[in-house]
Amino acid sequence: MTPSNLRLSGRTSRLWSALGVLLLLAGWQLTAQYLGPMLMATPLQALRALGVLVNSDSFWRNANASLARIAIGVGAGCAIGFALGVLAGHNAKLRGLLEPLRWLLMAMPPVVVVVLAMLWFGLGSSMVIFITVLMMAPGMYVNTVKGMLLVDRSLIEMTHVYRFGAWMRLRHLYLPALAAPLTAALLIATCGGVRLVVMAEVLGAESGAGFALANARSTFDSGELYAWVILILALVAALEFVLLQPLQRRLTQWQEPSHA
């Protein structure tokens, strides 16, 4: 595909995405009018509540608590999953040893993990971070192992012939080969991590966006509730479009065909 066709395709995709956003807003407006203000705020009411919310004393305390939990939980979970995946990709025995644990964590419903973590850690950041790490690591592990197993064996043998150390093999062979699956897994993990943190905060935390959502729900303040929903969606969009997509393009730019 030529560069001009790529640009045209990109513009077309953005136009359809904008149309999709308008349809979502229209559906939100119609549903809110049908359900009434107590059950669902309209987009305009949510935006008005958002202005009040960001100027409140509790907003930054809750927002900072959630952001810290997301950063620590998602970062630690992805790092653990990647490290174990690299090791398991090299060692079939370790891969077999970790397989039952991987299956258990991926099959267990998150709400069960939340209940157990509340019993073990009580309410607060430790519980939320533990849940996020436990749920994020298996996805990154699976993608890393699958990517490691798909690396060309002749290239691996070549690195041994030229006496590449472990760091050089990781940097010059495995990381480029794993760039596409890992960035996709990181995108899924980040978005899933935000949802997990908010869910854990709703069920058992004393601060954070989920805690504020639960309070808004208990007082039937639908304006504030949907204002927090907008903020959470904005955070996910910022992480994807400002951080993760540029990172993905940078890591996979060597795979793009060059145009004369």
From TrEMBL:
One of its GO terms (biological process) is transmembrane transport. Keywords: Cell membrane, Membrane, Transmembrane, Transmembrane helix, Transport. It is found in: Cell membrane. Residues 63-243 form the ABC transmembrane type-1 domain. GO terms for cellular component: plasma membrane. Pfam families: BPD_transp_1 (PF00528). PROSITE patterns: ABC_TM1. It comes from the Bacteria. The chain crosses the membrane at residues 70-89, 101-121, 127-151, 172-198, 225-244. It is a multi-pass membrane protein. InterPro entries: MetI-like, MetI-like_sf. Belongs to the binding-protein-dependent transport system permease family. This is NitT/TauT family transport system permease protein. It comes from Pollutimonas bauzanensis.
